[in-house]
Structure formats: structure tokens, C-alpha cells
Amino acid sequence: MASEEDAEQSYVPQKKKSESEDDKRRKKIVPGSLMKALMRPGGGESNPSDGDQIIYHCTVRTLDGVVVESTRSEHGGKGIPIRNVLGKSKMILGLLEGIPTMLKGEVAMFKMMPQMHYGEEDCPVPAPSSFPKEYDLHFEIELIDFSKAKVVSDDLGVLKKVIDEGQGWESPREPYEVKAWISAKTGDGKVIMSHTEGEPYFFTFGKCEVPKGLEMGIGTMTRKEKAVVYVTNQYLTPSPLLPMIEDYEEVHFEVELVHFIQVRDMLGDGRLIKRRLHDGKGDFPMDCALHDSLLQVHYKGMLLNEEKTVFYDTRVDNQGEPLEFSSGEGMVPEGFEMCVRLMLPGEIALVTCPPDYAYDKFSRPPSVPEGAHVQWEIELLGFEMPKDWTGLNFQEIMDEAEKIRVTGNRLFKEGKFELAKAKYEKVLREFNHVNPQTDEEGKVFLDTRNSLHLNVAACFLKMGECRKSIDACNKVLDATPVHAKALYRRGMAYMAAGDFEEARFDFQMMIKVDKSSEPDATAALAKLKKQEQEVERKARKQFKGLFDKKPGEIAEVQVEDRAGGEITGENQKNDLSAPFLERDDSQHCNEADGGQYGMGWFYSLWPSGRRIFSALGIDKCTIL
């Protein structure tokens, strides 16, 4: 009884498959409207099914034997067989129903009533001109071949038939460099191009060096794969491979993808390019280095001048020893690390790097001039994965956390706030799986987690993201509402964002929760007051004479003020100084937050203020 109840509970009615348009058309078929006569048997045991590409010749005759149309040259056709994809291509109903009953090589005669060919109501295939669609007709079909096909373009203008499967899963894409054997034939089998001897054809993906349809097909192939790519005329664009595109209805390209070189545009603007010279071991990207891995590399650095001057080579200048560094710690130029983290062990890559991702923001070697573009030839020897915390006891976990926190603090002092934040956040993610067992462990854990959240808040503040800094402080205050340092840091973020009332509340609350913090809170309140006074002074100065004018004269006020030196670029620059925060923090907060907090108190008191600011052309000015 229990098993019957379980069966009832576990039964879930299956969702009914939606009926396709072809299924709806098949319901129109009536007995006797489609008749088949076998003229020549085919071979094999399988029949074509949905998703198969079918290639066939078709000759249409009247019942007394007059040829109406044909694909065969002996009957006035072009000699090019028809290609369709069952379930995808638009076909007359008689062939849609009849061809799936055929074998490869079979020839059959189908007698069709008008509703089974072009006489069908709402037939999706337009009838040829002067076609006798109101008569019963004979359709002689020779099924030349059928096979599974990869639909490359939705309009079926590009299809691919796999001859031999390739290796791996990666396919070429822009801007990869590709080598392939390629030959091309017209639909009737005439060879129009063959590149199958000497060296494989070389081209750069995405550079229009092969016809568009062929490139789309190759973009679905893997190394060593052999395939036929069927391309119709709308995808036969001129290219160095096939300069002259004649009136071909379609071209069949036989392709063997010999090799391709992974080329990555790391920034998407063509400035930082990683070009793989030698394949590594493993699968990309599963076997690439993770964040915080310890990597060993040999590299040679070159200037991008005519001589390709070498400015450093670990095999020469480092006594043959490789460079060893931990990722995510800012120990190498940013462009260098970005590329190495996408390499496999044993891979060799050539990296072309712009100055802002090379040495303009990093310790520059003596022989590298300022603003220099460089190239690195890098070999990744191997790497060690970051330590797994699984199985560590509480003290070991806290020791590992302290090491990462110290690294984060170093990065913060070096001004690498994004990297520092990543270190703190890594530990916080790991802490989601830590469960203290004693009260003492719980206190240590809470204090450490709060400290990390406040470090994250400091990073956000330095990066100009005040709201995120406030959110990080809130995580501490949610757990410990009387945390004086969190109140102080949140107050700083509010003040940088221009939310002065919220900042005042936090500084006053500091005194209530911790008397020892009163000197710091009092100093902060004094600086807050000065900042408010400075904001008010500037607002009065900027709007001096504004309310003496009529609305239509606002633009005139703007011109007069600027002419009188009231709002100049130099004055605005000087106004960025803040008595409490560093200038960079307040400026970045207003810019990163889109200015929505910079004058929030003013807009709340005077909603039309934003429109006035816009009229004056100073709606994005920074007032802290």
C-alpha cells in the first residue's frame, strides 16, 4: 500500500511536446493523396530523419510523362541536386512525408494530388512560374545521400557535415590564426579551388581572408577535424582564398583543420594580445592557474622597436632560474599576470602589451623607457594550487587567514586597492565554511571577520565607491551594533558621499558606545562642520545673483559668473580639497557614484536644485 502511495506521489505528468508546423501539415494527408512506387532499391537499413541533411535529384512529370521541371541536366536542369534539412527546410508536403521512407541510393516515383505539392493551401514553398499545381503529378526522386548535419546559420545558408571527428573541444574564433587544407567544388561537382598541397592555407580568423560562410563553418570545427561545409551564395563573400565569386548557387568546401593558434585580445581593444606559440598540457581553461596560485615562468622581455631589444631574460639575467610569483599579489605587471593566468603548463606565449599594463604602473627596468610598448615571450613551467583549507583545524585556518590578510595590507599600502580587496574577500568567502567550536574561537572569528569587512570598506572608499564602502561597514554593524571603528569608517564614507547628517549621526554614536573614541569622534565632527560650511559657502558663491534674475535669464547669469571668474577650471579644482578626507577619496566617490550623493542634502531640501545645476552647466561638479 505504501509503495502505491509513493508511486502516486512520485508521478509527475510529463509536459506534452508542442506540435510542430510540419506535424500540423501531416494531419491534412488523406488516403490516396500520396502514392509511392519503387523504381530502384537503395542500400543500408536506415532512413533519413529530422535533423538529417538530404541530397536528392527531383524530376516532376505530368501523368502522361511530360517533364515539368527537373534538377537533372538531361532534362533541362542545372545538374545540381537539391539539399534540404528534414525538420528545418521548407518542403512540399509530399516530399516531407515520402523521403523519410527511402534508403540511400533509392529511386522512387511519388504520385501526388495537388494538396500534396504546390497546390496545398498555405504551402510554405512558392510554386515555380507556370507550374501546373492544380494537377496530379509524378515526382521522381533519387536519394543520393543523407547524413547528420550541423546547422551553422539559422537560414540554412551554411551547413556542415563531419567526415572525421576532431580532437578536444576548442574551436577557432577571432582573432585566432588558422591553418587548414581547403578545396572547393560547385554543387554539380566542378572543382573551382584546391589548396591541398605544399603548406596548409593560413588565415587570421575575423579578417575576411576566407568567404564568410566558410569561416562560420570552420568556427565550429576542432583540431584535426575533417568536414564538408556547404555554403550558399549569400555567404560567398570575396576573399584572398576565393577572389572571384561567380554566379555559384552554392559551394561545397572540403576542409581539414590542421592547426590553429590561440590569439586572445585581452582587453577587447587590440592593445593587449596573447598569442600562443606552443601548446601546453591539459584542457583550457580547466587546467589554468587559479587566483593565488604560485607560478614558475621563464620569460624574455623585449622592446617593440626595430631591433626588438631584449631588456631582461630570466635564462640569462637570473642565472637560469625561473621567476616565481603568486598571482593576485601585484608582483608582476598587470598585463603579464592577466596572460599567464590563461596559460597551460608547458605553454609558450608571445604577449604584446601597452605601457599602462606593462611598466608605467610598475617598477620599470632601467633599460625600459617611460611609455614603452613591450613584448614578453613567456613559458609557463608550472604552478602550485592555493592551499586547500579542507581538513584544517581552527587555529590553522586563522593562521592561513592572517597570511592572506597581511598580503592584502601590503597591497593596500602600495595603492593596489583592487588586489587588496580581492585578498580580504577571499578570506571572507572561506569563512562561510568555518564553524567555531568554542566561545573563545567564536570571539576570535568574529573579530577577524569584522576587521576584514572594514578593510574591504577602506578599499572601496579608496576606489571611490562610497555606497559599497557603507554596505561593507553595515555588515559589521549588523553583527556588532556598538562597533566604534565601523561607525567611524561608515561616517567617513557618508562624509565623502556628501551625506552629512548620516555622518554626524555615526560620529555622535561613536561617543555613546565607546567613550575612549571621543577624541577621534570630536575631531571628525569638527572637520565635518568645516566641510559643511565650505559647501554652503560655495553654494552661495555659485548662486550669487541667481534669484535676482527671471527664469529666462539663468543662462545669462551663467555667462556673467564665468566671465567674472566665479566658476573657473582652477577654482573648481581647488574646491576638490576636503579637510577630513584625502582629496582622491572624496573626488572618486562623487565620480564613481555618478554624483548622486555629492549634493544629496542640497537636493533633498531643494528638489529643483538639479535642474538649476544643469542650467548652469555644473550638474556634475564635485563639492567636497
From TrEMBL:
GO cellular component: cytosol; microtubule; mitochondrion; nucleus
Cellular location(s): Cytoplasm, Cytoskeleton; Cytoplasm, Cytosol; Mitochondrion; Nucleus
Record's keyword annotation contains Amino-acid biosynthesis: no
Domain PPIase FKBP-type: start-end pairs: 51-147, 175-261, 292-384
InterPro entries linked: FKBP4/5/8-like, PPIase_dom_sf, PPIase_FKBP_dom, TPR-like_helical_dom_sf, TPR_2, TPR_rpt
Major enzyme class: isomerase
Extent of the TPR repeats: 484-517
Protein name per its UniProtKB record: peptidylprolyl isomerase
Lineage, opening ranks: Eukaryota, Viridiplantae, Streptophyta, Embryophyta, Tracheophyta
